[in-house]
Amino acid sequence: MTTPATGLHEDGSPERLAIDTIRTLSMDAVQKANSGHPGTPMALAPVGHTLWSQFLRYDPDRPDWPNRDRFVLSVGHASMLLYSLLHLAGVKEINADGEYSGDPAVSLDDIKGFRQLSSKTPGHPEYRYTTGVETTTGPLGQGCGNSVGMAIAERHLAAHFNKDDMVLFDHDVYSLCGDGDMMEGVTAEAASLAGHMKLSNLCWIYDSNQISIEGGTDLAFTEDVAARFRAYGWKTLHVSDANDTVALADAFQTFRDTHDAPTLIVVDSVIGWGSPKAGSEKAHGEPLGADAIKATKKAYGWPEDKDFYVPEGVAEHFAQSMIDRSRPLRESWDMTFATYREKSPELAAELERMRQGELPDGWAADLPVFEADAKGVASRDAGGKVLNAIAKRVPSLMGGAADLSPSTKTDLKFDGAGSFTAATPGGRNMHFGVREHAMGSIANGMALSYLRSYTGTFLVFADYMRAPIRLAAIMEVPTIFVFTHDSIGVGEDGPTHQPVEHLATLRAIPGLVTIRPGDANETAQAWSVALKQADRPSALIFSRQALPTLDRDKYASAEGLQKGAYILAEAGGGDPDVILIGTGSEVSLVVDAYEKLRAEGVRARVVSMPSWELFENQDAEYRDAIFPPAVRARVAVEQAGSMGWDRYVGHDGATITMSTFGASAPLAKLQEKYGFTIDNVVKVAHEVMQGNGK
């Protein structure tokens, strides 16, 4: 058994008591829940305590102070470390109404309810759920990516808002990472970009305990992490004993004194420190067991028969250490902002709107309206025009693409937009490089720091971004994910670049608003809807090929997109004989088929259905008006998989969709091969009408 170190902090000192309180709360909570990860919080308690008590600029009474330092626990499975810190620091709750309730963010009872239903201490930290949690971390590496986005946001906000005599933003971002984070590719992508951007406000603390679930990390991981990060352009430091709080403090101060690069602090630790299972994978992902806990408490000099024990004065001393350092900084910030509001009222109002997730007045005043045009325009091109028109009026809108902006049309081209670089942090065009996975997690970090962030890549690469898209939905942050090249319309690039299953997988994510507009005016409405989302992300799905711009004097207004599905065209004369449903590039195809059916005397209805999510948000009366239950002859047309369409076409309807991967050929040949032609839509419409007695 590893025994407590001596000479680093005396037994009985406030520091030692607080550190061991974090350790014992963590192992008691995991034991009571019979689930969790006790070893890492036990090992990193000195790291967390040193950072929070001596360096983190964070006022426990104002956990939403804009210039607070951010602490990201990328090793989300070690959540009890964060919950213990929040409890001992006395962080106050912000309730669901956004008010300071005065209650603790994490009470001792909350810790006792670790991992239980409706507790504020879930298995992994969850943003919006527990005050003091800056981002939802679970999938390893995501917190690392988020922290890069937060650091980018600080740099951008400082460039935009700070005045020579009034500094509103100069905070730092800390992320606690582990061996698992370092193995994940997203971490490498994010670290590479952070080094390139010289984000000296970013500090990662790498817990090098050399233990993974299967055993020692040497089973699969033997690289020199510090050397890798130096190659990325990071400053690297090494603390050889996680219990050495003096060395930890020196490392944090060195980070604070570094102004030309992000900092990686490699900390050697012993997982499950002080327990009979120390240094073993048995201390990682399972409770220590009652006997081992008693032995560990004895090694700490702790009362062996007390669970969830917080010695008198420990919490008060810890909280006061944070208050003494951070409250004067926060109060000074408040006074600075009061002066700022007087001298720069427009900028002050802008910042307040950003904090509230609100858009400026008149933000949609320049929203383009596109004239009817049979040749039309690709929705990616229309999307670029709409984005630029909106971005001029929404200063917080910032983003870019994974080295694809010329193709995704996601670059901001107006005067003053500029590029975000180490030398020009006020720029609004992000150059993420070919790093789709990190791009998503970085954009989420930006969204968590008041920016309206967006990303851009081809739809087929949505697979690379699944984790950050899903986490944006879980966190309810309004990140906008732009995807172009959305179908077999990619043509000659072939099946590797033709997404057929991706729409279904995006639609399957709860809370994600997926929108596939059918022409340029629907594209304008799609951007409008995405910008108005305050608490959920959006995926905008655009075409590479030109789409006819429909005559809105003849067909319904594109504003119908805001309800997810709307009647675009109606034959009239009673209930329709058949309903034709289309999305994206297939809307114009369905309209052409409708015109042919109408000429035959068929009462057809065209429903443009760009967003299932928005449609499902409508009441039953509206949904039934679009799809009358009595009209069972329905045909859905989409150059993607059929999964999910059965809920709208029913057992008696049909789909013209993709059941295989695509092929490399010109688009017209592919449309003929897979049945996306006027004649085939008309043929299938007649078949479903006949099957329904029409």
TrEMBL record:
One Pfam family in the UniProt entry: Transketolase_N
Reaction(s) the record says it catalyses: D-sedoheptulose 7-phosphate + D-glyceraldehyde 3-phosphate = aldehydo-D-ribose 5-phosphate + D-xylulose 5-phosphate
Positions marked as site (Important for catalytic activity): 37, 284
Cofactor(s) the protein needs: Co(2+); thiamine diphosphate; Mg(2+); Ca(2+)
Domain Transketolase-like pyrimidine-binding: 377-549
Residues of the active site: 436
Enzyme nomenclature, EC number: 2.2.1.1
Origin: domain of life: Bacteria
GO biological process entries: pentose-phosphate shunt, non-oxidative branch
Principal EC category: transferase
Annotated binding of substrate, by residue: 37, 284, 380, 407, 485, 493, 497, 544
Protein biosynthesis among keywords: no
Residues noted as binding thiamine diphosphate in the record, renumbered to the chain: 77, 138-140, 180, 209, 284, 461
Entry's family note: Belongs to the transketolase family.
Subunit note: Homodimer.
Name of this chain's protein: Transketolase
Organism the protein comes from: Sphingomonas prati
